UniProtKB/TrEMBL annotation:
SUPFAM superfamilies per UniProt: Domain of the SRP/SRP receptor G-proteins, P-loop containing nucleoside triphosphate hydrolases
Sorted UniProt keywords: Cell membrane, Cytoplasm, GTP-binding, Hydrolase, Membrane, Nucleotide-binding, Receptor, Transmembrane, Transmembrane helix
Transmembrane segments annotated in the record for this chain: 6-25
Subunit structure: Part of the signal recognition particle protein translocation system, which is composed of SRP and FtsY.
InterPro entries the record matches: AAA+_ATPase (IPR003593), P-loop_NTPase (IPR027417), Signal_recog_particl_SRP54_hlx (IPR013822), SR_rcpt_FtsY (IPR004390), SRP/SRP_N (IPR036225), SRP54_GTPase_dom (IPR000897), SRP54_N_sf (IPR042101)
EC id: 3.6.5.4
Compartments where located: Cell membrane; Cytoplasm
Known role: Involved in targeting and insertion of nascent membrane proteins into the cytoplasmic membrane. Acts as a receptor for the complex formed by the signal recognition particle (SRP) and the ribosome-nascent chain (RNC).
Residue positions binding GTP: 199-206, 281-285, 343-346
Protein name: Signal recognition particle receptor FtsY
Catalytic activity: GTP + H2O = GDP + phosphate + H(+)
Protein's gene: ftsY
Residue ranges constituting the SRP54-type proteins GTP-binding domain according to the UniProt record: 364-377
Length: 393
């Protein structure tokens, strides 16, 4: 009997022990699975290709329950920002400080000498030298000095303001304010105006083509750019960027393609799109005069099958002085240059080049580059230029 009671007691204890264990074990197993899997999105996870990263412990053994993936919506392609550049009017006035800064030596040097105690032979020689140093050219420097000397004598004045006025008038007369400096960008009915940019590499030709496109757009026109400088692939690339910024089509071909065919296609496309102005950048390598003549002559002839060429703008780097002038002469001999663009005027004290180049080529300076910024190209205004040189308010 006692034995039976002992056996029953052992059985009951064993039953309780097994039951308790059964109750505890399932709980432990449920624990980790209850935990929600953490899903971390990589940067920019809103777009396509977002990666769910599992925590290491879950990846090892736990049953990770991933949240349903949100439908992947591809990011829209970036819309190029089309800029609206400022109009051309008043640009030189805006950039006057830069001009005044670079031409300061030239203007102030002259004014200081003229305001000195004595105006003798030596002083007049110094005045002439300053003008020559500023690239005015020997002939013009002599004429300006003589003209000023006569005016000062006739007026019998040494008053600083009066002398400044006389110098202003003399310089202005040599820059010739009466020349027509209009850049002909206006279309002819259905036909766009065509502008050829010529000049040696590195003078800022491609940049100027891009800046000019902005001037035209800023003035309310529409533009197409032709990358006929097929010599350098980067030039077409550069032009493409300029075009995109103002929403202009750029016609280009592979490196080494025939520049004339690019120019022809550009004008044809310009007609088709109904744009007002087609600006064509050319390579104009100065390897030989005959080569240059062939290349530019062909471009011009081919373009003229579609439309007249309204402007041939010769781009010159103002910092290159006499070298630039030599280049200018060669270009003027091979193509009918209708206007000059002087770039990098912000980087030289030799603003007198304007007088010399106009005198040599008989062609007006129409635009000046005064910096690397996209809108640092201004229509040339003789009065604003002289006032900046002399810092006249
Ligand atoms: N400071 C200053 N830099 C300028 C001006 N105009 C152009 N540049 C710079 O001159 C450099 C040469 O300009 P590009 O337009 O590439 O010269 P390019 O004549 O077209 O040369 P290619 O494309 O090789 O024919 C660039 O760094 C321009 O930013 C200007 O008015 N002032």
């Amino acid at each position: 009997m006692d034995y039976t009671i002992v056996v029953i007691a052992i059985f009951v204890v064993a039953l309780v022990a097994v039951g308790g264990a059964l109750l505890v074990i399932p709980r432990r197993q449920v624990g980790p699975a209850e935990k929600k899997p953490e899903v971390e999105r990589s940067e920019g996870s809103s777009g396509a290709g977002a990666t769910a990263v599992l925590e290491p412990e879950e990846a090892e053994g736990g049953t990770a329950v991933a949240e349903p993936e949100a439908p992947v919506v591809p990011a829209p392609p970036p819309v190029p920002q089309i800029e609206l550049p400022p109009p051309s009017a008043g640009r030189l006035v805006r950039l006057r400080a830069r001009l005044a800064q670079s031409q300061n030596v030239f203007g102030r040097g002259l004014l200081n000498l003229l305001a000195g105690d004595k105006l003798d032979e030596d002083t007049w020689e110094e005045i002439e030298e300053i003008l020559i140093t500023a690239d005015v050219g020997v002939t013009s420097a002599t004429q300006i000095t003589e003209g000023l000397r006569t005016r000062v004598r006739v007026m019998g004045t040494r008053d600083a303001d009066e002398v400044r006025k006389l110098l202003r008038a003399e310089l202005l007369a040599h820059i010739n304010p009466d020349l027509d400096r209009t850049v002909r960008t206006e279309p002819h009915g259905e036909r766009p105006a065509v502008i050829l940019m010529v000049g040696v590499n590195g003078v800022g030709k491609t940049t100027t083509a891009g800046k000019l496109a902005r001037v035209v757009v800023g003035d309310g026109g529409s533009v197409l750019l032709g990358a006929a400088d097929t010599f350098r692939a980067a030039a077409a690339e550069q032009l493409q960027t300029w075009g995109e910024r103002v929403g202009a089509t750029v016609v280009r071909k592979e490196e080494g393609a025939d520049p004339a065919s690019v120019a022809f296609d550009a004008v044809a496309k310009g007609l088709e799109e109904g744009v007002g102005t087609v600006i064509i950048d050319t390579a104009g390598r100065l390897h030989t005069k005959t080569g240059l003549m062939d290349e530019l002559g062909k471009v011009k002839r081919v373009v003229e099958k579609k439309s007249q060429v309204d402007e041939v703008l010769l781009v010159l780097d103002a910092t290159t002085g006499q070298n630039g002038l030599r280049q200018a002469r060669v270009f003027a001999e091979v193509v009918n240059v209708t206007g000059i663009v002087l770039t990098k005027m912000d980087g030289t004290a030799k603003g007198g080049i304007i007088i010399q180049v106009q005198r040599e080529l008989g062609v007006p300076v129409k635009l000046v580059g005064l910096g690397e910024g996209p809108d640092d190209l201004a229509p040339f205004d003789p009065e604003a230029f002289v006032d900046a040189i002399l810092e006249t308010p």
